[in-house]
Amino acid sequence: MNYQGDRTTGFASPAGDNIEGTIDLMSAALDLRQPSRYPVRVEGDALLGRSIRHGDILVVDSAVAPRAGVVVVASVGDELRVCELTQRAGEWWLRSSSPQASPVQVDDDTDVAIWAVATGLVRTDV
Amino acid sequence: MRVYGLIDGNSFYCSCQRAFEPRLKRRPVVVLSNNDGCAIARTREAKALGVKMGDAWHIARKRPESQPVVWYSSNYALYADMSRRMYQVLAERLPAVEPYSIDEMFLDLSDLPGDLHERCRQIRQDVAEHAKIPTCIGWGPTKTIAKLANGLAKDHAELDGLCDLTDPAVRQDWYRHTSIDEVWGIGRQTKQKLLGAGIETIADFVTLDAKTVRQMLTVVGARVQAELRGQSCLPLSDIAATRKSIASTRTFGRLLLKWEEIREAVAHYANRAAEKLREDGLEAAHLSVLMQTNPHNGDPWYAKHAAVTIEPTSDARDLIRHATALGRAIWLPGYRYFKAGVILSDLRPTGSQGLMFAFRDPVQSATVMAALDAVNARFGSGTLRPGSTGLKRTWSPRQSLLSARYTTRLEEIVTARSW
């Protein structure tokens, strides 16, 4: 059951020292046991341009440092939004996918805050 | 030098709710006890509106002042997962962490390089960032001092959530101004005794002769005094060692008269206790059942407790059979029952004792229980359960204000609108 290409009975496996195990897709970007990882369900198709669909599950990380261009979950007033993050003159802004909506500045005083940064995406409805 | 720390989550249950709901950020939040009975956690804003610990919900919610309050049923699945996150953040940063309660953890801060104050500030920030829980940290040469420091950090906003009591001079200063009942381990009775002897502040208490303290308050009080003097008597423990007993007791959602309904509840409690038992790889050789009427509503008082020694088992079916038989023996008609419970004790590792005349084939039993646990782990607790635990469950506690289990159930995770 536990044969990994190493413990042969006749000829010693030349790969004995190079066993790496199967790729663990979970641990890299999706592992929700990390204390800073949270799952978030996406509502709406506004981010189709970034291949994020309605019903997708984003895995977000609240300890990842924000960078310009990443997708974040942000709290704006009473609601949580999924959107793109941009930087202008050292300040963070949330950018809407719609050209009509103007960007919103991340600012504790106006109750706009980054909740977590998207690190992975799971689509169960393919 | 030995340094102990204590970190605790501010209004922990409320903070868990707030972590997932931005609308709660500045609003008063109160979490209610099991069965939506009374207030057990309040945010600062809720305290300011006069909501007290233990206030009954059905009365408090009608007061005009409490109109802005957002009330929640306790969501222990969520709180346990957030406590797990908090522990993990700490365990990755410190040599030893002891989870003392769901929202308090003792820390080993001994001999760490660099400035301790700065390190604690960083830890506090990391917990807030990763686990989304605001905290306070207090530290000093003993656990009792760390606990006191934590309380001071919480009560004095100017300390910015951090309180260092390692310096004896700083300690003395606080001791002079702090009442003896702020001390961990000083209960109401002890406090009365001390007040009777004219001892009000911690400074009064630590200057007492150790012999006098021992005579007055036994070794327990003497230990508290030694700890306050900076002599460590309580070492850091690991995660709680093997449990001594497992209890599953609850207040019913309403008063129950009929044995059929109580039987379902007792079977359910036995099933839950059996699950906890198997989680820890244990078997129980002793089982007891309790049942009682409400002591506060004027009903005639009836409370009964019965126990039996059983073949060591963790099989839900065996435990349910024993529990319902015992329950039937102590149930009397005519009373309105308020609460019941099942307690398992004399716990031992699974299979530690071979049975000569086993009631059940142990291999078959283990297979069935493993399948049951696997289904419930995958599809959620209670998906598959013994029929005796009921379908309608008319006795189950009220949780009318339950929030989603954001981190433990896929169908209940947070949603965010794409923008």
UniProtKB/TrEMBL annotation, chain A:
It comes from the Bacteria. Transmembrane segments: none annotated. Signal peptide: none annotated. SUPFAM superfamilies: LexA/Signal peptidase. Residues 8-118 form the Peptidase S24/S26A/S26B/S26C domain. InterPro entries: LexA-like, LexA/Signal_pep-like_sf, LexA_repressor, Peptidase_S24_S26A/B/C. CDD domains: S24_LexA-like. This is S24 family peptidase. It comes from Gluconobacter cadivus.
UniProtKB/TrEMBL annotation, chain B:
PROSITE patterns: UMUC. Keywords: DNA damage, DNA repair, SOS mutagenesis, SOS response. Monomer. Poorly processive, error-prone DNA polymerase involved in untargeted mutagenesis. Copies undamaged DNA at stalled replication forks, which arise in vivo from mismatched or misaligned primer ends. These misaligned primers can be extended by PolIV. Exhibits no 3'-5' exonuclease (proofreading) activity. May be involved in translesional synthesis, in conjunction with the beta clamp from PolIII. It comes from Gluconobacter cadivus. Signal peptide: none annotated. It comes from the Bacteria. Belongs to the DNA polymerase type-Y family. Residues 4-187 form the UmuC domain. Gene3D superfamilies: 3.30.70.270, 3.40.1170.60, 5' to 3' exonuclease, C-terminal subdomain, DNA polymerase, Y-family, little finger domain. This is DNA-directed DNA polymerase. Its EC number is 2.7.7.7. It catalyses: DNA(n) + a 2'-deoxyribonucleoside 5'-triphosphate = DNA(n+1) + diphosphate. It is an enzyme of class 2 (transferase).
